[in-house]
């Protein structure tokens, strides 16, 4: 039966969306394409599937996704398996071709230490379950990780399994201070006060609270 409603309206219904996924999966299976169902956020399953195919499939793998996906792929990728390439699903208006990254080369350029911090960076700057931090884009994050030893220390706290709640809270605050150019152990309150004074003393208009 032809669907007369708009796509957004149709898929906003959870049952419609799930039935569409099931139908699409069955059609793909009929054509010999494997499909995997994620119970929640699919990002991790996508990366793990790509890494698994590179390890066991006997051939190179190309992952098509959003630009932020390649950040987490650098963390999950195994340097001992077949090559994994990332292809952006978005194309710049000025570019004639889609951009493709060699994940192994990218991981080598960033360094193992930086790549191990990427899940924390991805989460704290905003993802499917975390609100975005104001004024800090994800392009800045890898540079902060590579060039700021104090930030790396805070990321290690988050990636460890045996840290207390108080240690995690403190590390999260210190990480945000690093992102906004604060001093180590300065704290968000002092940094916020300094930034407010600087903006008020140099600005010509009323300062907005969210800045």
Structure write-up:
Strands 1-2-3 form a 3-stranded mixed β-sheet. The termini are far apart. Helix 6 (112-124) packs across helix 7 (140-147), helix 6 (112-124) crosses helix 8 and helix 8 (149-159) packs antiparallel against helix 9 (165-179). 54% of the residues lie in helices and 6% in strands. The protein is globular. The longest helix has 17 residues, at 14-30. With 211 residues, it is mainly alpha-helical. 16% of the residues are buried. The protein has 10 helices and 3 strands, in the order H-H-H-E-H-E-E-H-H-H-H-H-H. Strand 1, helix 4 (69-76) and strand 2 form a beta-alpha-beta unit.
Helix content: 40-55%
Give the terminus-to-terminus CA distance.
51 Å
Task: Count the beta strands.
Answer: 3
Sheet-strand content, in percent, reads 5-15%
Low-pLDDT runs of 5+ residues are none
What's the average pLDDT?
85
Strand line-up of the largest beta sheet: 1-2-3
Oligomer kind: single chain
Give me some keywords for this one.
single chain, 211 residues, mainly alpha, 3-stranded mixed sheet, 10 helices, globular
Structure summary:
The protein is mainly alpha-helical.
List the helices and strands and how they pair.
Layout lengths: L6 H5 L2 H17 L12 H14 L4 E5 L3 H8 L7 E5 L11 E3 H8 L1 H13 L15 H8 L1 H11 L5 H15 L8 H15 L9
Parallel strand pairs: 1-2
Antiparallel strand pairs: 2-3
């Amino acid at each position: 039966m032809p669907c007369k409603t708009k796509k957004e309206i149709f898929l906003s219904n959870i049952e419609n969306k799930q039935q569409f996924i099931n139908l699409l999966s069955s059609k793909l299976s009929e054509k010999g394409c494997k499909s995997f169902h994620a119970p929640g956020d699919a990002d991790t399953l996508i990366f793990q599937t790509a890494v698994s195919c590179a390890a066991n499939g006997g051939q190179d793998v190309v992952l098509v996704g959003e630009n932020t996906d390649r950040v987490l792929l650098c963390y999950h990728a195994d340097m001992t398996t077949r090559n994994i390439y990332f292809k952006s699903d978005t194309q710049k208006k000025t570019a004639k071709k889609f951009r493709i990254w060699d994940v192994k080369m990218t991981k080598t350029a960033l360094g193992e230490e930086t790549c191990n911090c990427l899940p924390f960076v991805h989460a704290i700057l905003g993802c499917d379950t975390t609100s975005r931090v104001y004024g800090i884009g994800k392009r800045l994050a890898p540079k902060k990780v590579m060039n700021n030893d104090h930030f790396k220390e805070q990321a290690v706290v988050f990636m460890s399994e045996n840290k207390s709640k108080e240690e995690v809270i403190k590390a999260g605050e210190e990480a945000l201070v690093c992102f906004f150019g604060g001093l180590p152990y300065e704290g968000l309150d002092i940094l916020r006060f300094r930034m407010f004074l600087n903006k008020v003393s140099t600005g010509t208009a009323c300062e907005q609270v969210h800045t």
